[in-house]
Amino acid sequence: MSGKSFNPFRMAQVQFDKIAEMLELDEATRDFLRYPMREYQFSIPVRMDDGSVKIFRGFRVQHNDARGPGKGGIRFHPQETIDIIRALAMWMTWKCAVVDIPLGGSNGGVICDPHNLSMKEQEQICRGWVRQIARDLGPLVDVPAPDVMTSSQHMLWMLDEFESIRGHKSPGFITGKPVGLGGSLGRKEATGFGVVFVIREAMKELGLRPEQTRASVQGFGTVGQPAVSLFQQIGGKVISVACWDQKDQTAYCFKKESGVDFEALTGITDRFGGINKDRALALGYEVLPGEAWIEQDVEILIPAAMENQITTDNVDRINRNVKIIAEGANGPVTPGADEVIAGRDIFLIPDLLANAGGVIGSYFEQVQSNMNYYWEKDEVFGKLDVKMTSAFNDTVQLAKRKGLYMRDAAYYIAVARVVQACKDRGWL
Amino acid sequence: MLTNVANLMPKKINCSYLERLTPFDRHFFTGTEKFTYIGSGSLGGKAQGLAYMKEVLETKIAPKFMPDINVTIPTLTVIGTDSFDLFLKQNNLHDIAFSSMRNDSIAHAFQRAELPAQLVGDLRALIAQVHTPLAVRSSSMLEDAMFEPFASVYVTKMIPNNQHDTDTRFRRMVEAIKYIYASTFFENAKNYIQATRHTTADEKMAVIIQEVVGCMANNRFYPHISGVARSYNFYPMEPAQPEDGVVNLALGLGKTIVDEGIAWSYSPAYPQANPPYNSVRDLLKETQKGFWAINMGEPLEYNPIKEVEYMLRQDLSAAEQDGTLRFIASTYKPDDDKIVIGVGDRGPRIINFASILRLEEIRLTDLIKELLKVCEDVLGSMVEIEFAVTLDEHHARPARFGFLQVRPMVVSDAVVDISLSELTEENVVVASEATLGNGMIDTICDIVYVKPEVFDVRCTQAIAKELEKINHELVSSDTPFLVIGFGRWGSSDPSGGIPVNFGQISGAKAIVEATLPNMNFMLSQGSHFFHNLTSFRVVYLSVEHIGKYKIAWDWLASQTVVSEEKFVRHVRIPNPLKIRVDGRSGRGVIRHG
Predict the structure, then answer these.
(1) Smallest CA–CA separation between B87 and chain A, in Å?
(2) Digit-coded pLDDT (tens) for B261-296
(3) ipTM, 2 decimals?
(4) I need a labelling partner for A223 at 20 to 30 A (CA). Which of B26, B247, B259, B494 fits?
(5) What is the CATH number of domain A188-354?
(6) Which of B117, B123, B171 has the CB atom closest to A189's CB atom?
(7) How far apart are CA B501 and CA B480, in angstroms?
(8) Given the DSSP bridges, would you call strands B290-295 and B264-266 parallel, antiparallel or unpaired?
(9) Segments making up each domain of chain A, as ranges
């Protein structure tokens, strides 16, 4: 799952430029929003288990905080670049705006591969990352959250370090914490469930009933798993799931025409979302190359793994029966592929809307942490569903009114809201 | 109106009612459809009954009565049974649900569980826009068959839903839904289902969330009138015929009628007929003195596993204060020993609905007659309906008639002829001219009776417990029995009779209600208790100690004792009793030998 020369920040800027044109923004506004407001790049020295010291590169990018404190994940990934972080921070700005929560957009990360690091070494990276940036983070400044290959354990280490530095408890500093230690019920499922909530609404738009639909999902981690689970609960059938195989260093697509058994599949899945190939074969799954997820005869595609997965190279392989693509991951469809998808009248639910459940869940956690009072799961999911559905309806209505592609409609709403906040503050 | 009791089993209706309904679009009052559903699966018997009536109400009934009366099914959405299945599965509640844990323990476990994620968004959206009281009602799937209407087996919870904060309203509604789900597994429900051909595992619960028809006054919300009407009357008073049906009306929420059995009862063919009381004094004694309302003020307690958490039982003086008695009360003038319609004068109030039934200020009786007829046509059986009415004192707006429920009534079609002389023949154990039901039973060898020599009206709750224990044993061994007791069976007032719910005597195929010289009970049942008797084809005989027929207590005392409790004895006879009840004449006789 790749893309060698792909630059997500460039892609994010192209998307923004298109909307800026539609909104007829002035030059200063465009210039302000095309780049992050602040960027931090720093080194994190870590003493490794073998006694050696290794330097890791860390980042935090705060794209825009006109609508509220920054919010965004922390990624641990060996191929991390500042441009990926910039793009993700910008997308977070739009994402928070499109679902109308009072937060800005940030993102951060460390170039590292947790697969090759002990837990102790990962803890040192987490604590070191916080030490470098603590003065520029906080519940009312910028609030990190888990992202690719970071978990609630990482968040807890970071929180502990932050509270040690500040000298007081501050559970609202970070989200994605374990339940019982400042975490929110439902946070874990929020992104995946949010994806399914908007798929459900899209089905209503297209006159489809869930029981008439099949889906193919790329990614079986924190987004893919709850999405598969809820999609099947509302009556749909997931026939294939693709994921990365760490051992073979390649992706596979696991297929069962009669529908995957969610519980059986999660029973043979590691903590990074990798499905055990041999055990899957034993359970009767076809094991296909990773790319095969895109060409399945389904009505719904859910790319929920990485950016840059549906490109001009493979967009033509999308089955003619596909009616909805819901971007569970950030930036999985390139602008070139977008044109083909729009031309085929496939209903695309753009990433900043489709996977906004994660940031809404984070926002809910932050609100609860700041109050130090925690809600029941019913309440979390009820609020999440209403937020997602309202945002979806706003976007669809605008798309219909102005004849826009769904991605453009979502960006249009988001950028307009952020521009308005900047203007109201007198920045522009 | 049907003219005889033959072929009255409700016919199975196969039309796909679900396809005629609309999914909830997150607009409760403002949507174009006022009857919607959430999720999938069955909508349960209660909702299904309403769904069948929806179209005919809108097209045939409502136009006839406008502009005087606005007839509607109050706005509602139904949560399908699939959500119930998922709720049990996701929260691993099966073990608890099917255990013998106490009701409150089951209810607590259900409160701690989470509703399915795909459900709560719709609930949240609903509650965000609604600030008026809601009824959260059970609608069980086994009722779907339309052959076994489970009246009052499961709970209904009224929530005031007037809190400013959306989160609070949402939580109260979620608690109510979980409570309804839990009630599927309460002891009463399990006993009840055991008496059918089903098991609790077959049962699934849909939930109706419905606007409450009523008006607000002094932090109380209630309808001016609640009513239950049946198209067949087992106790007709001359000159009414059984086929004329019967209507029970009460002030406030329907709980007064269905659970307490207190109502103004009349034949819709003779709404102006004098009441069946011997004197004005009797009438004053028996008239409705309290009513149920939703508490819109500060809650008295927080108890999500209590059905009446947000309900209040008030004296009539509260209704007087609220100004809701104008159309429904009359006043007794002691100086003249007369009853005057209305509340213009001072004096004791009598809830007799005289302005409506005698002066016909609104055409309520015509509407009820029409509804009973149409419901019979649609369901193909005799029916029982429930409704609520609000009135506008100044007639500036039409009265509002909320159609709440329709259930089929199940009556045996056997022709049983009992002559008067048979009631006094040899070997008679019980004879009566006031019976309920129709048919013959010759399979009962077990008799469970409350011992007259030790009966104490202060111990009726203990008696109910003893009966429940014996019932459980007999139901477990699939043994039908005759039960004999004192006072009003199913009374919610322990001093008025034995306060059993139907599940506690669910194995009884014949029930005898008797009085003793030191008692003065008004022999009647709550509507739901009554409905269950007819649904299960239980025959019911009333015997008053002052009447001409006696119970053969000595014969009973001489039979072989199977078990003996402090108040209740279980005896078994070698040959089955011969039990016969004639639904047309009202005569019934139980003979041995």
Answers:
(1) 11
(2) 778 888 999 998 866 666 777 788 878 999 999 999
(3) 0.74
(4) B26
(5) 3.40.50.720
(6) B117
(7) 17
(8) unpaired
(9) 36-183, 188-354
